[in-house]
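#structure-requests
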Amino acid sequence: MDFDLSEEQRLLKESIDGLLTDSYDFEQRKKYLSEKGGWSKAVWGKLAEQGLLGLPFSEADGGFGGGAVETMIVMEAMGRALVIEPYLATVVVAGGFLRHGGSAAQKAAHVPSIIDGSKTFGFAQLEKNSRYDLFDVATTAKKKGAGWVIDGEKFVVLNGENADTLIVTARTKGNRRDKSGIGVFLVPADAKGVTRKGYPTQDELHAADVSFTGVEVGSDAVIGDPENGLALIERVVDEARVALCSEAVGAMDESLKATVEYIKTRKQFGVPIGSFQSLQHRASDMFVAVEQARSMALFAAMASDFTDQAERSKAIAAVKVQIGKSAKFVGQQAIQLHGGIGMTMEAKIGHYFKRLTMIENTFGDTDYHLRRVADGGGLV
Protein backbone atom coordinates (compact mmCIF):
# COMPACT_ATOMS: atom_id res chain seq x y z
CA MET A 1 0.00 0.00 0.00
CA ASP A 2 1.29 3.47 -0.93
CA PHE A 3 1.28 5.86 2.03
CA ASP A 4 2.91 8.75 0.14
CA LEU A 5 0.88 11.91 -0.40
CA SER A 6 -0.36 12.59 -3.90
CA GLU A 7 0.73 15.73 -5.73
CA GLU A 8 -2.56 17.46 -4.83
CA GLN A 9 -2.17 16.46 -1.18
CA ARG A 10 1.40 17.77 -1.08
CA LEU A 11 0.20 21.08 -2.49
CA LEU A 12 -2.52 21.21 0.16
CA LYS A 13 0.08 20.58 2.87
CA GLU A 14 2.32 23.34 1.52
CA SER A 15 -0.66 25.69 1.33
CA ILE A 16 -1.87 25.24 4.91
CA ASP A 17 1.68 25.15 6.31
CA GLY A 18 2.52 28.38 4.49
CA LEU A 19 -0.64 30.13 5.63
CA LEU A 20 -0.16 29.22 9.29
CA THR A 21 3.55 30.01 9.25
CA ASP A 22 2.71 33.53 8.06
CA SER A 23 -0.37 34.08 10.21
CA TYR A 24 0.06 32.07 13.37
CA ASP A 25 3.13 32.46 15.50
CA PHE A 26 2.66 32.37 19.27
CA GLU A 27 2.53 36.15 19.69
CA GLN A 28 -0.07 36.52 16.95
CA ARG A 29 -2.12 33.78 18.59
CA LYS A 30 -2.23 35.80 21.81
CA LYS A 31 -3.74 38.71 19.88
CA TYR A 32 -6.35 36.45 18.30
CA LEU A 33 -7.35 35.18 21.74
CA SER A 34 -8.14 38.75 22.81
CA GLU A 35 -10.51 39.34 19.89
CA LYS A 36 -14.27 39.14 20.36
CA GLY A 37 -15.26 35.50 20.57
CA GLY A 38 -11.68 34.37 21.19
CA TRP A 39 -10.57 33.76 17.60
CA SER A 40 -9.58 35.70 14.50
CA LYS A 41 -12.14 36.52 11.84
CA ALA A 42 -9.27 37.59 9.57
CA VAL A 43 -7.63 34.15 9.80
CA TRP A 44 -11.01 32.52 9.24
CA GLY A 45 -11.34 34.62 6.09
CA LYS A 46 -7.91 33.46 4.89
CA LEU A 47 -8.90 29.84 5.43
CA ALA A 48 -11.98 30.51 3.30
CA GLU A 49 -9.94 32.25 0.58
CA GLN A 50 -7.66 29.23 0.26
CA GLY A 51 -10.64 26.89 -0.02
CA LEU A 52 -9.89 25.10 3.25
CA LEU A 53 -13.41 25.63 4.63
CA GLY A 54 -14.82 23.91 1.56
CA LEU A 55 -12.33 21.06 1.56
CA PRO A 56 -14.58 18.10 2.54
CA PHE A 57 -17.67 19.15 0.58
CA SER A 58 -18.47 17.71 -2.83
CA GLU A 59 -17.87 19.72 -5.96
CA ALA A 60 -21.63 19.68 -6.56
CA ASP A 61 -22.04 21.59 -3.28
CA GLY A 62 -19.28 24.06 -4.12
CA GLY A 63 -16.45 22.30 -2.31
CA PHE A 64 -13.32 20.42 -3.35
CA GLY A 65 -14.32 16.83 -2.64
CA GLY A 66 -11.55 16.17 -0.13
CA GLY A 67 -11.55 13.07 2.03
CA ALA A 68 -10.24 11.96 5.40
CA VAL A 69 -6.57 12.22 4.36
CA GLU A 70 -7.02 15.84 3.28
CA THR A 71 -8.72 16.64 6.59
CA MET A 72 -5.85 14.86 8.37
CA ILE A 73 -3.31 17.11 6.62
CA VAL A 74 -5.18 20.27 7.61
CA MET A 75 -5.82 19.22 11.21
CA GLU A 76 -2.21 18.18 11.77
CA ALA A 77 -1.06 21.60 10.60
CA MET A 78 -3.59 23.25 12.89
CA GLY A 79 -2.32 21.16 15.80
CA ARG A 80 1.24 22.35 15.19
CA ALA A 81 0.10 25.97 15.15
CA LEU A 82 -2.38 25.67 18.06
CA VAL A 83 -5.14 27.10 15.89
CA ILE A 84 -8.13 28.37 17.87
CA GLU A 85 -10.58 29.00 15.02
CA PRO A 86 -13.68 26.72 14.98
CA TYR A 87 -12.64 24.44 12.11
CA LEU A 88 -13.56 21.25 13.96
CA ALA A 89 -17.00 22.45 15.07
CA THR A 90 -17.94 24.07 11.77
CA VAL A 91 -16.24 22.22 8.91
CA VAL A 92 -15.69 18.74 10.37
CA VAL A 93 -18.74 18.28 12.62
CA ALA A 94 -21.43 20.51 11.12
CA GLY A 95 -20.11 19.82 7.65
CA GLY A 96 -20.26 16.11 8.39
CA PHE A 97 -23.92 16.27 9.40
CA LEU A 98 -24.81 18.19 6.26
CA ARG A 99 -22.77 15.95 3.96
CA HIS A 100 -24.01 12.65 5.35
CA GLY A 101 -27.56 13.51 6.40
CA GLY A 102 -28.57 16.89 5.04
CA SER A 103 -31.26 17.32 2.41
CA ALA A 104 -30.55 19.19 -0.81
CA ALA A 105 -32.35 22.21 0.62
CA GLN A 106 -30.35 22.11 3.86
CA LYS A 107 -27.07 21.87 1.98
CA ALA A 108 -28.06 24.77 -0.26
CA ALA A 109 -29.01 26.85 2.79
CA HIS A 110 -25.88 26.21 4.87
CA VAL A 111 -22.92 24.80 2.95
CA PRO A 112 -22.15 27.95 0.88
CA SER A 113 -22.06 29.98 4.10
CA ILE A 114 -19.57 27.56 5.63
CA ILE A 115 -17.39 27.61 2.54
CA ASP A 116 -17.24 31.40 2.29
CA GLY A 117 -16.64 31.78 6.04
CA SER A 118 -19.77 33.79 6.79
CA LYS A 119 -21.33 31.23 9.12
CA THR A 120 -20.00 29.07 11.96
CA PHE A 121 -21.63 26.21 13.87
CA GLY A 122 -21.66 24.56 17.27
CA PHE A 123 -22.54 20.94 18.12
CA ALA A 124 -24.88 20.83 21.14
CA GLN A 125 -24.64 17.21 22.26
CA LEU A 126 -23.16 16.83 25.77
CA GLU A 127 -25.61 16.76 28.67
CA LYS A 128 -25.36 16.64 32.45
CA ASN A 129 -24.25 13.15 33.55
CA SER A 130 -24.21 11.80 29.96
CA ARG A 131 -20.41 11.50 29.92
CA TYR A 132 -19.34 10.23 26.48
CA ASP A 133 -22.44 8.20 25.56
CA LEU A 134 -23.90 9.74 22.41
CA PHE A 135 -27.25 8.02 22.98
CA ASP A 136 -27.70 9.53 26.46
CA VAL A 137 -30.08 12.33 25.49
CA ALA A 138 -32.64 13.97 27.78
CA THR A 139 -33.28 17.11 25.71
CA THR A 140 -36.65 16.65 24.03
CA ALA A 141 -38.10 17.57 20.65
CA LYS A 142 -41.88 17.32 20.55
CA LYS A 143 -44.07 17.64 17.48
CA LYS A 144 -46.10 20.81 17.10
CA GLY A 145 -47.98 20.90 13.85
CA ALA A 146 -45.45 20.37 11.07
CA GLY A 147 -42.59 21.58 13.27
CA TRP A 148 -40.94 20.79 16.59
CA VAL A 149 -40.52 22.30 20.06
CA ILE A 150 -37.14 21.72 21.74
CA ASP A 151 -36.54 21.83 25.48
CA GLY A 152 -33.40 20.95 27.45
CA GLU A 153 -29.84 21.87 28.31
CA LYS A 154 -26.51 21.21 26.61
CA PHE A 155 -23.06 21.77 28.05
CA VAL A 156 -19.55 22.57 26.76
CA VAL A 157 -20.78 23.34 23.25
CA LEU A 158 -17.59 24.15 21.33
CA ASN A 159 -17.96 27.50 19.56
CA GLY A 160 -21.42 27.66 21.10
CA GLU A 161 -20.83 31.21 22.24
CA ASN A 162 -20.18 32.48 18.72
CA ALA A 163 -22.01 30.02 16.45
CA ASP A 164 -24.66 31.27 14.06
CA THR A 165 -26.38 27.88 14.02
CA LEU A 166 -26.45 25.03 16.53
CA ILE A 167 -26.74 21.37 15.63
CA VAL A 168 -28.74 19.85 18.47
CA THR A 169 -29.39 16.24 19.43
CA ALA A 170 -32.82 15.78 20.97
CA ARG A 171 -35.06 12.89 21.93
CA THR A 172 -38.24 12.56 19.89
CA LYS A 173 -39.48 9.45 21.71
CA GLY A 174 -38.47 6.84 24.30
CA ASN A 175 -36.41 7.02 27.46
CA ARG A 176 -33.21 8.92 28.11
CA ARG A 177 -30.75 6.12 27.27
CA ASP A 178 -32.67 4.45 24.46
CA LYS A 179 -30.65 4.16 21.26
CA SER A 180 -33.68 4.85 19.12
CA GLY A 181 -35.84 7.96 19.19
CA ILE A 182 -33.00 10.49 18.75
CA GLY A 183 -33.11 13.27 16.18
CA VAL A 184 -30.68 15.92 14.95
CA PHE A 185 -31.90 19.49 14.50
CA LEU A 186 -30.60 22.72 12.99
CA VAL A 187 -31.42 25.55 15.39
CA PRO A 188 -30.60 29.22 14.78
CA ALA A 189 -28.48 30.38 17.70
CA ASP A 190 -30.59 33.54 18.04
CA ALA A 191 -33.91 31.67 18.05
CA LYS A 192 -36.41 32.63 20.72
CA GLY A 193 -35.89 30.48 23.80
CA VAL A 194 -32.16 29.85 23.23
CA THR A 195 -29.92 31.07 26.06
CA ARG A 196 -26.12 30.83 25.86
CA LYS A 197 -23.54 31.22 28.61
CA GLY A 198 -20.08 31.39 27.08
CA TYR A 199 -16.68 30.84 28.67
CA PRO A 200 -13.08 29.96 27.72
CA THR A 201 -12.04 26.35 28.10
CA GLN A 202 -8.80 25.10 29.65
CA ASP A 203 -7.06 25.09 26.25
CA GLU A 204 -8.23 28.65 25.49
CA LEU A 205 -10.92 27.70 23.01
CA HIS A 206 -14.43 28.98 23.67
CA ALA A 207 -17.53 26.99 24.58
CA ALA A 208 -20.99 27.64 25.98
CA ASP A 209 -23.68 26.04 28.07
CA VAL A 210 -26.91 26.35 26.10
CA SER A 211 -30.50 26.19 27.35
CA PHE A 212 -33.49 25.53 25.06
CA THR A 213 -36.83 26.64 26.43
CA GLY A 214 -39.78 26.08 24.12
CA VAL A 215 -37.62 26.64 21.02
CA GLU A 216 -39.79 26.22 17.94
CA VAL A 217 -38.27 25.04 14.65
CA GLY A 218 -39.84 24.00 11.37
CA SER A 219 -39.95 20.59 9.74
CA ASP A 220 -36.98 21.65 7.62
CA ALA A 221 -34.80 21.78 10.75
CA VAL A 222 -34.55 17.99 11.02
CA ILE A 223 -31.42 16.38 9.58
CA GLY A 224 -32.29 12.89 8.41
CA ASP A 225 -34.69 10.62 10.28
CA PRO A 226 -35.94 12.31 13.49
CA GLU A 227 -36.36 8.93 15.23
CA ASN A 228 -33.20 7.17 14.07
CA GLY A 229 -30.44 9.75 14.13
CA LEU A 230 -27.94 7.88 16.29
CA ALA A 231 -26.15 6.18 13.38
CA LEU A 232 -25.60 9.57 11.75
CA ILE A 233 -24.34 11.06 15.03
CA GLU A 234 -21.92 8.18 15.54
CA ARG A 235 -20.57 8.50 12.00
CA VAL A 236 -19.96 12.23 12.28
CA VAL A 237 -18.43 11.96 15.76
CA ASP A 238 -16.11 9.20 14.51
CA GLU A 239 -14.93 11.60 11.80
CA ALA A 240 -14.41 14.26 14.46
CA ARG A 241 -12.33 11.81 16.52
CA VAL A 242 -10.17 11.11 13.46
CA ALA A 243 -9.65 14.84 12.95
CA LEU A 244 -8.75 15.31 16.62
CA CYS A 245 -6.21 12.50 16.42
CA SER A 246 -4.52 14.25 13.51
CA GLU A 247 -4.52 17.54 15.39
CA ALA A 248 -2.92 15.77 18.36
CA VAL A 249 -0.14 14.45 16.13
CA GLY A 250 0.65 17.98 15.01
CA ALA A 251 0.70 19.25 18.58
CA MET A 252 2.88 16.34 19.75
CA ASP A 253 5.29 16.77 16.86
CA GLU A 254 5.74 20.45 17.65
CA SER A 255 6.10 19.68 21.38
CA LEU A 256 8.90 17.25 20.58
CA LYS A 257 10.70 19.74 18.35
CA ALA A 258 10.41 22.53 20.93
CA THR A 259 11.69 20.22 23.68
CA VAL A 260 14.69 19.00 21.69
CA GLU A 261 15.59 22.58 20.80
CA TYR A 262 15.30 23.62 24.45
CA ILE A 263 17.56 20.88 25.82
CA LYS A 264 20.13 21.73 23.15
CA THR A 265 20.36 25.32 24.40
CA ARG A 266 19.58 25.12 28.13
CA LYS A 267 22.85 24.79 30.01
CA GLN A 268 23.64 23.32 33.41
CA PHE A 269 27.09 22.66 34.87
CA GLY A 270 28.43 24.54 31.88
CA VAL A 271 27.05 22.17 29.21
CA PRO A 272 23.73 21.81 27.35
CA ILE A 273 21.41 19.51 29.28
CA GLY A 274 20.79 17.69 26.02
CA SER A 275 24.26 16.20 26.37
CA PHE A 276 23.05 14.15 29.34
CA GLN A 277 22.31 10.61 28.19
CA SER A 278 19.25 10.18 30.39
CA LEU A 279 17.57 13.20 28.76
CA GLN A 280 18.52 11.94 25.31
CA HIS A 281 16.75 8.67 26.14
CA ARG A 282 13.63 10.54 27.23
CA ALA A 283 13.63 12.57 24.01
CA SER A 284 14.00 9.32 22.07
CA ASP A 285 11.01 7.84 23.88
CA MET A 286 9.01 10.96 22.98
CA PHE A 287 9.96 10.47 19.33
CA VAL A 288 8.76 6.87 19.40
CA ALA A 289 5.44 7.93 20.97
CA VAL A 290 4.92 10.61 18.31
CA GLU A 291 5.63 8.18 15.48
CA GLN A 292 3.28 5.59 16.97
CA ALA A 293 0.59 8.25 17.11
CA ARG A 294 1.31 9.37 13.54
CA SER A 295 0.91 5.86 12.13
CA MET A 296 -2.30 5.34 14.08
CA ALA A 297 -3.70 8.68 12.89
CA LEU A 298 -3.11 7.58 9.31
CA PHE A 299 -4.86 4.30 10.07
CA ALA A 300 -7.77 6.28 11.51
CA ALA A 301 -8.04 8.30 8.30
CA MET A 302 -8.34 5.06 6.34
CA ALA A 303 -10.71 3.52 8.90
CA SER A 304 -13.13 6.44 8.58
CA ASP A 305 -14.05 5.08 5.14
CA PHE A 306 -14.97 1.62 6.46
CA THR A 307 -18.54 0.83 5.43
CA ASP A 308 -19.12 -1.47 8.40
CA GLN A 309 -20.08 0.80 11.29
CA ALA A 310 -18.93 -1.62 14.00
CA GLU A 311 -15.52 -2.14 12.40
CA ARG A 312 -15.09 1.59 11.86
CA SER A 313 -15.96 2.46 15.44
CA LYS A 314 -13.72 -0.26 16.88
CA ALA A 315 -10.76 0.86 14.75
CA ILE A 316 -11.20 4.52 15.62
CA ALA A 317 -11.60 3.69 19.31
CA ALA A 318 -8.27 1.84 19.19
CA VAL A 319 -6.64 4.86 17.55
CA LYS A 320 -8.07 7.18 20.20
CA VAL A 321 -6.53 4.96 22.89
CA GLN A 322 -3.06 5.14 21.36
CA ILE A 323 -3.33 8.87 20.68
CA GLY A 324 -4.43 9.48 24.26
CA LYS A 325 -1.52 7.50 25.68
CA SER A 326 1.01 9.18 23.40
CA ALA A 327 -0.40 12.65 24.06
CA LYS A 328 -0.17 12.21 27.83
CA PHE A 329 3.38 10.86 27.67
CA VAL A 330 4.72 13.44 25.22
CA GLY A 331 3.03 16.32 27.04
CA GLN A 332 4.30 15.31 30.45
CA GLN A 333 7.84 14.72 29.23
CA ALA A 334 7.87 18.05 27.40
CA ILE A 335 6.85 19.91 30.55
CA GLN A 336 9.38 18.09 32.73
CA LEU A 337 12.27 18.62 30.33
CA HIS A 338 11.46 22.32 30.13
CA GLY A 339 11.54 22.54 33.92
CA GLY A 340 9.79 25.37 35.74
CA ILE A 341 9.43 27.52 32.63
CA GLY A 342 7.18 24.87 31.12
CA MET A 343 4.55 25.69 33.76
CA THR A 344 4.30 29.38 32.87
CA MET A 345 1.72 31.00 30.59
CA GLU A 346 4.55 32.70 28.70
CA ALA A 347 6.01 29.39 27.51
CA LYS A 348 4.33 27.87 24.47
CA ILE A 349 4.96 24.29 25.55
CA GLY A 350 2.40 24.41 28.35
CA HIS A 351 -0.29 25.47 25.90
CA TYR A 352 0.43 22.41 23.78
CA PHE A 353 0.03 20.18 26.83
CA LYS A 354 -3.29 21.78 27.71
CA ARG A 355 -4.58 21.30 24.18
CA LEU A 356 -3.42 17.67 24.12
CA THR A 357 -5.16 17.07 27.44
CA MET A 358 -8.42 18.49 26.09
CA ILE A 359 -8.16 16.43 22.90
CA GLU A 360 -7.70 13.29 25.00
CA ASN A 361 -10.97 14.08 26.79
CA THR A 362 -13.03 15.15 23.77
CA PHE A 363 -15.56 12.61 22.45
CA GLY A 364 -14.27 9.98 24.86
CA ASP A 365 -11.10 9.69 26.93
CA THR A 366 -8.56 6.85 26.79
CA ASP A 367 -10.32 4.68 29.40
CA TYR A 368 -13.67 5.06 27.65
CA HIS A 369 -12.29 3.99 24.29
CA LEU A 370 -10.29 1.16 25.82
CA ARG A 371 -13.59 -0.25 27.11
CA ARG A 372 -15.10 0.17 23.63
CA VAL A 373 -12.23 -1.78 22.08
CA ALA A 374 -12.57 -4.53 24.69
CA ASP A 375 -16.33 -4.74 24.16
CA GLY A 376 -15.76 -5.01 20.41
CA GLY A 377 -13.26 -7.83 20.74
CA GLY A 378 -10.37 -5.75 19.44
CA LEU A 379 -6.83 -5.51 20.72
CA VAL A 380 -4.82 -2.40 21.59
